Amino acid sequence: MNEQHKSLGEAYNETTYPLIGHSRRNVEVLLEAFQPVDGSQAGDMYGNGAVIEDFQKFMADELGKESVVFFPSGTMAQQIALRIWCDEAELKRVAYHPLCHLEIHEEDGLKELHQIETILLAGEDRLITLEDVQNLNSDIACLLLELPQREIGGQLPDYAELEAISAYCRSQGIKLHLDGARLFEITPYYQRTAAEICSLFDSVYVSFYKGIGGIAGAILAGDNDFLAKSKVWKRRHGGDLVSLYPYIISSEYYYKQRIEKMGRYYEEAKELAAMFNQCHAVVTKPIVPVSNMFHVYFQLGKNQLEPILMDIYNTTGIGFISYLKEASEDHCQSEVHIGERYGKTPREAIQEAFRVLNEKLLEAVQP
Amino acid sequence: MNEQHKSLGEAYNETTYPLIGHSRRNVEVLLEAFQPVDGSQAGDMYGNGAVIEDFQKFMADELGKESVVFFPSGTMAQQIALRIWCDEAELKRVAYHPLCHLEIHEEDGLKELHQIETILLAGEDRLITLEDVQNLNSDIACLLLELPQREIGGQLPDYAELEAISAYCRSQGIKLHLDGARLFEITPYYQRTAAEICSLFDSVYVSFYKGIGGIAGAILAGDNDFLAKSKVWKRRHGGDLVSLYPYIISSEYYYKQRIEKMGRYYEEAKELAAMFNQCHAVVTKPIVPVSNMFHVYFQLGKNQLEPILMDIYNTTGIGFISYLKEASEDHCQSEVHIGERYGKTPREAIQEAFRVLNEKLLEAVQP
Fold first, then answer.
1. Of the candidates B218, B185, B229, which has an alpha carbon nearest to the alpha carbon of residue B81?
2. Secondary structure letter of residue B155 according to DSSP
3. Least CA distance to B109: which residue of chain A?
4. Looking at CA atoms only, how far is residue B115 from chain A in angstroms?
């Protein structure tokens, strides 16, 4: 490929050691997960059959909830959770963070399909606090908390604050829903099991293609009545597929492969963030990650930084990040999440690449 | 397993020659489709990437439409099609058959999620006619026709009637949507290509796990503007999965395997229906199938017929049908669709099994 027309993502994908995530999202992800599976194993049929029921039971135990239903996507699962709580309260209003997935990534499905009004709590630059919840001016059926708050670098409240929000919601009859897309990834920081964290919430969504690295798929967890209702809505949304087993089998496979590695990913995220922070004109958010993810901010325009990164990718074989988002004319940012790749990369090679990055940033960014 | 507690479905699955469909719906369906695929092939990402875009382009050509979007399910695809036409007409009313999939199998998703009012045309025992459409008392944004009409045995209007309905809808500004879950299965009877049939409709849904026998998945086809809108609604419904390739690759694989066999399945369905009709107290609907499917009606109660069938399955190794639905105390019915299995079964064995069935029905059903 012509080097001059290569994108940052292409250059990143061509490095020997891309640092982010588990692997390329290619068909090998499926082939590996199905390698141990016998072809005679029956598929699921419209939510029934051992392959889906056993996994749902297994995950219910893992999360300490009565019941679990597997969904094709978190978008579907979470809209449905909020709808059920709104119907139960006979109140079509919920509250969540301004950068909640439902608010910015779902084409307003919650409003367009469910006519649910939303209150945006806190600000785009900070977490929801107990005080925000206590100061609500309107009644709400449900509060959604996203842990970690992805769009601000994956930040987390103190666990005590989380417990206080949970207790307050219970006292007020407000249902508490967890957007736990990255639930497993925060257990090492909180030093709590997934079940302990889930016990603070009435309903929980978890994804299987974030830290777990499956193909796609999600679950809702909660009590039996809630999940029975969710199945009706799953059918209405068109999510009750004749067979979901390609996602279920890969979710289970990668869950069992990686659930014990969340602590390592977290430690490696802290290590990598420290290396970014040691570079001139670079800062991560949070400074010290509280999960396997963080954001990186550069005091340099996207157009200036891209050729610098691509040059380093080319000469060192290390790929730091796969894209840059313009924050302003002379600032840009990206997102990092740790999976299998980082730990397989020689530390000396990473350190050398950061040495070069720092050198080039010192040249490029005048103090 | 204890023979006395076995269900008809279990007994059917244990026969050497079950006659319905392609194969068991087990993991082998996936493994076979992925056997030729190289692991390095990139997956799709939120509707983008060669694996989804190439298949959509291929199917658009097959159906003679500008554009195609792949969906995880037909439930999702069809609700979205009707919503788009209603929004365009600023009229939230559509018409379809009383036994339409949206009316009886989707937990009223169209009404609950889209607030679309429905008019039921024709009766539960017959097809929608041109006259039904002409006699509509209310304006509608869209008419949905299901070809073949599955719940009445897979019946079809004459092609001339279909053309007349299409012309009438166009003259009235009514959008015509095809529930073509089994579109490919009707091309041999109509002696028309899928594209010719689709040309009568503004939007078309096709399934990949009926006659094609994939794992799951569906497409919507139509013009560019319609499909662009459908992608927004797909995101809202939670159907814009990070990766749909397990369904796409299997859909393409089985499409290419089986699209040329639709004529054979149709001929075999007629052959099998004739054998049912030669038995005492049995009649199929239609008498002569017009696709690869038909319904079978028995003038005998479900509880009387089940042990008779199970005994024949056990002694002959032929499995006729996998379930019986009670129609009344002394009538029951089932559904048959032809795939790969029928053609692989020795004809003499089938004929012998039908000889025994007829004998036993003559004993059981007094004239």
1. B229
2. B
3. A236
4. 9
pLDDT in tens, A258-316: 999 999 999 999 999 999 999 999 999 999 999 999 999 999 999 999 999 999 999 99
Reported ipTM:
0.97
Mutate to test the interface with A, among B83, B111, B242, B251 (most CBs of A within 10 A): B242
Is it true that the peptide bond before A286 is cis, omega within 30 degrees of 0? yes
Distance CA A131, CA A165 (A): 9
Task: Give A366's pLDDT tier (boundaries 50, 70, 90).
Answer: confident
**Cross-chain CB nearest to B215 (options A38, A233, A243):** A243
Domains and CATH numbers, chain A: 3-24+261-364 (3.90.1150.10), 44-242 (3.40.640.10)
- Would the CB atoms of B73 and A241 count as touching at under 8 Å? yes
Sign of the C-alpha dihedral, residues B185, B186, B191, B193?
Answer: negative
Tens digit of each residue's pLDDT (9 = 90 or more) over B38-80: 999 999 999 999 999 999 999 999 999 999 999 999 999 999 9
- Interface probe for B, chosen from A113, A229, A250 (most Cβ of B below 10 Å), is A113
Query: DSSP of B191-249, one letter per residue?
Result: T--HHHHHTT-SEEEEESSSSS--SS-EEEEE-HHHHHHHHHHHHHHT---S--HHHHH
* H or E element in which residue B355 lies: helix B347-364
The pLDDT value recorded for residue B205 is 98
Among B263, B261, B205, which residue's Cα sits nearest to residue B76?
B205
Q: How far is A215 from chain B (nearest CA, A)?
A: 6
Distance from CA of B163 to the nearest CA of A (A): 30
**A37 contacts B27? CB cut-off 8 A:** yes
Q: Contact, A207 vs A182, CB < 8 A?
A: yes
Residue-wise pLDDT tens digits, B229-239: 999 999 999 99
Is there a contact between A28 and B40 if contact means CB atoms under 8 Å apart?
yes
As a whole number, the mean pLDDT across chain B is 97
**Looking at the predicted structure, is the pLDDT value of residue A243 above 70?**
yes
Nearest CA in chain B to A209: B242
Torsion angles phi and psi, residue B111, rounded to 5: -80, -45
Span B116-157, pLDDT tens digits: 999 999 999 999 999 999 999 999 999 999 999 999 999 999
CA-based nearest residue in chain A for residue B218: A241
Among residues A203, A207, A236, A241, the alpha carbon closest in space to that of A222 is found at: A203
How far does the CA of residue A9 sit from the closest CA of chain B (Å)? Answer: 14
Distance separating alpha carbons of residues B56 and B77, to the nearest angstrom: 14
* Chain A residue with minimum CA distance to B236: A109
Average pLDDT over chain A, rounded to an integer: 97
Contact across the interface for B113 and A39, Cβ inside 8 Å: no
**pLDDT-based confidence at residue B1 (cuts at 50, 70, 90):** very low
Inspect the interface and report whether the beta carbons of A38 and B29 lie closer than 8 Å.
no
Read off the tokens for A88. 């139960």
Provide the number of CB pairs (under 8 Å) joining chain A to chain B: 172
User: Residue B103 has what pLDDT?
Assistant: 98
CA-to-CA distance for A22 and A199, rounded, in angstroms?
29
Please, which residues have CB within 8 angstroms of residue B137's CB and are 6 or more apart in sequence? none
Per the DSSP assignment, residues forming a β-bridge with A71 are: A218
Q: Which residues of A touch B244 (CB under 8 A)?
A: 216
User: Is there a contact between B27 and A45 if contact means CB atoms under 8 Å apart?
Assistant: no
Nearest residue of chain A to residue B105 (CA atoms) = A235
Length of chain B: 367
User: Exposed/middle/buried for B236, CB within 10 Å: 0-12, 13-18, 19+?
Assistant: buried
B108 to chain A: nearest residue by CA? A236
**Minimum-distance CB partner of A27 among B27, B43, B240:** B43
